[in-house]
């Protein structure tokens, strides 16, 4: 087991986390035995050459002459310059180099991942101290263009998931929290994967989280995303995530016609959530009811809706809308009767399935 985060990917065909439990991520197989045999052969050859020179086993002619000449004219001057010339002061540079070579050999042979752990720790430290742009610029200097920063993207994705979990926990608890890390990681991921529609949807979801917790930082994040994506792409995203109240019923009725891109459906869901939380709690009822009716129709499979649910945390946002709607309907005197007690329980997906009047099927389990 290693602490290296896996590459970000969405393996969910729909929104069922039960199916994800038994699904193993793809593994990258490396030829460990061939590497170990090759290293053993090289080390064995070097030991054999050293024994031949030390015992003068070969005659000083032909191959033996070349071997002895290489030892006397190359190895001995190099060794004297590297080690004997400075004496013990050579440990100042020889020690760290030897340790790094040993760690690299350990990782190359598959006995551990010490260098990768150090690299991940350094990247995490830089990301948490607002060095994201410096790290991206350094990788570009090395010639790693967009699409070739797999480890950095994986670390950013891991940090973003942690910040996202903290933000969602704060929303569910009704408390404030700092979204600075959430905004930083969103900007980094948006820059490194600017042209990927799933990443654009995810960044829009993080922007909505920030808007619900700290609107000022969400406004700054919005301007950064517009700068990264460009006016056209950002305008298309904002057109769906900032849907007006009067357009929600028409958009909900349009769910009955398949063919929309899953990313557009996910962005529209975020737009409905925004209106429901910030201004109109009842606006989400028609959207999620129509979504459930279309999602669980047995005659027409809706893969587009299933894929859209996998691109965002669909259950979380449905529960947020439901909680906002119940909080508005709850009398003030009842809410203050037991202060600090959650007097409602969002039903989320269970209620949506009940509205659709379809049995809940998870694997081989049927609710009927």
Jot down its keywords:
368 residues; transmembrane; transmembrane helix; two-stranded antiparallel sheet; membrane; elongated; disordered N terminus; 3 domains; mainly alpha; disordered C terminus
Overview of this protein structure:
- With 368 residues, this protein is mainly α.
- Helix content is 67%, strand content 1%.
- Strands 1-2 form a two-stranded antiparallel ribbon.
- Residues 1-20 are annotated as: Disordered.
Tally the helices: 18
With strands numbered from the N-terminus, the spatial order across the biggest sheet is 1-2
State the low-pLDDT regions, or none: 1-22, 342-368
The helix-and-strand class reads mainly alpha
Strand content: under 5%
Mean pLDDT: 78
Q: Between the first and last Cα atoms, what is the distance in angstroms?
A: 41 Å
Cα radius of gyration in angstroms: 30 Å
Transmembrane segments: 37-58, 88-109
Keywords: Membrane, Transmembrane, Transmembrane helix
Region (Disordered): 1-20
In short:
By secondary structure, the protein is an all-alpha fold. It is 67% helix and 1% strand.
Ordered list of secondary-structure elements with their pairings:
Elements: H1 17-21, H2 32-55, H3 63-84, H4 91-108, H5 114-128, H6 132-141, H7 150-173, H8 180-192, H9 197-213, H10 215-229, H11 231-241, H12 248-253, H13 262-278, H14 283-295, H15 303-311, H16 314-329, H17 332-335, H18 349-356, E1 361-362, E2 365-366
Antiparallel strand pairs: 1-2
Keywords: Membrane, Transmembrane, Transmembrane helix
Transmembrane segments: 37-58, 88-109
Region (Disordered): 1-20
């Amino acid at each position: 087991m290693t602490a290296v985060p896996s590459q970000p990917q969405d393996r969910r065909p729909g929104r069922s986390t039960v199916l994800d439990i038994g699904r193993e991520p793809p593994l990258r197989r490396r030829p460990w035995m061939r590497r170990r045999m090759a290293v053993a052969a090289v080390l064995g050859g070097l030991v054999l050459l050293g024994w031949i020179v030390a015992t003068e086993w070969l005659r000083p002619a032909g191959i033996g002459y070349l071997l002895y000449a290489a030892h006397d004219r190359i190895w001995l001057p190099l060794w004297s310059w590297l080690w004997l010339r400075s004496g013990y002061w050579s440990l100042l540079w020889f020690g760290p180099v030897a340790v790094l070579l040993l760690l690299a050999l350990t990782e190359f042979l598959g006995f551990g991942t010490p260098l990768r752990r150090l690299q991940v720790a350094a990247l995490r430290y830089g990301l948490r101290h607002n060095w994201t742009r410096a790290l991206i610029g350094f990788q570009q200097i090395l010639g790693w263009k967009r699409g070739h920063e797999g480890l950095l993207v994986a670390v950013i994705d891991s940090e973003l998931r942690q910040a996202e979990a903290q933000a969602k926990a704060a929303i569910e608890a009704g408390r404030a929290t700092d979204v600075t890390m959430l905004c930083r990681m969103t900007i980094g991921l948006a820059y490194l994967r600017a042209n990927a529609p799933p990443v654009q949807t995810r960044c829009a979801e993080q922007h909505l989280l920030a808007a619900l917790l700290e609107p000022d930082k969400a406004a700054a994040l919005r301007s950064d995303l517009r700068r990264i994506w460009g006016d056209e792409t950002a305008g298309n995203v904002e057109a769906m995530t900032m849907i007006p109240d009067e357009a929600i019923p028409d958009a909900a009725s349009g769910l009955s016609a398949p063919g929309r891109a899953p990313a557009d459906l996910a962005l529209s869901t975020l737009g409905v959530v925004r209106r429901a939380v910030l201004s109109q709690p009842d606006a989400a009822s028609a959207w999620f009811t129509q979504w459930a009716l279309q999602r669980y129709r047995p005659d027409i499979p809706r893969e587009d809706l299933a894929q859209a649910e996998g691109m965002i945390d669909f259950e979380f946002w449905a529960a947020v809308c439901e909680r906002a709607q119940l909080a508005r309907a709850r009398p003030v005197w009842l809410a203050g009767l037991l202060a600090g007690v959650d007097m409602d329980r969002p039903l989320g997906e269970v209620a949506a399935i009940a509205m659709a009047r379809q049995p809940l099927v998870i694997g081989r389990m049927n609710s009927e």
